């Protein structure tokens, strides 16, 4: 699991598909612009992005009071990943609101996205 709170941290995501990196970049740009470039992402307003790469990491989220099997995300978007015109594994971006000024974007491969999230996909 990778936590990204600021756009300056996006450079560490080189191993991920470019489309996923761009989605994270857009989310962190918004967070930085709206809530500050120097905020402490765990305690200040705004939130962060969590990149989940393995199914077992979904269970780790429960330790942080995020139960992906019962929570209702605000939205779930599909991130279509392509390489050399060949479709690769797609990803999802799911927005979880903790309150009006704190959100968590969960980015994960479609193959491990919980069914209740897929059902919400726009």
Can you tell me about this structure?
- With 122 residues, this protein is of the alpha+beta class.
- The chain is globular, with a radius of gyration of 14 Å.
User: Biggest β-sheet, characterized?
Assistant: 5 strands, mixed
How many beta strands in the DSSP annotation? Answer: 7
Average pLDDT level: 90
If you compute it from the alpha carbons, what radius of gyration comes out, rounded to the nearest whole angstrom?
14 Å
> N-to-C SSE series?
EHEHEEEEEH
| Unreliable stretches | none
Number of helices: 3
Derived structural class:
alpha+beta
Going across the biggest sheet, name each strand in turn. Answer: 1-2-7-6-3
The helix fraction, in percent, is: 10-25%
Q: Looking at the structure, what is the overall shape?
A: globular
Strand content: 25-35%
* Span of the ends, CA to CA: 24 Å
Please specify the SSE layout and strand pairing:
Elements lengths: L1 E3 L13 H18 L10 E6 L3 H7 L13 E5 L2 E2 L2 E2 L3 E9 L2 E8 L5 H4 L4
Parallel strand pairs: 2-7
Antiparallel strand pairs: 1-2, 3-6, 4-5, 6-7
């Amino acid at each position: 699991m990778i936590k990204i709170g600021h756009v300056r941290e996006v450079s560490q995501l080189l191993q991920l598909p470019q489309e996923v990196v761009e989605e994270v970049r857009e989310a962190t740009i918004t967070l930085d612009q709206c809530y500050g470039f120097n905020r402490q992402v765990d305690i200040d307003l705004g939130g962060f992005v969590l990149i989940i790469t393995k199914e077992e990491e979904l269970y780790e989220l429960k330790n942080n009071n995020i139960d992906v099997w019962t929570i209702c995300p605000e939205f779930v978007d599909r991130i279509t990943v392509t390489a050399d015109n060949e479709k690769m594994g797609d990803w999802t971006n799911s927005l979880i609101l903790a309150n009006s000024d704190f959100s968590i974007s969960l980015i994960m491969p479609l193959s491990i996205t919980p069914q209740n999230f897929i059902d919400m996909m726009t």
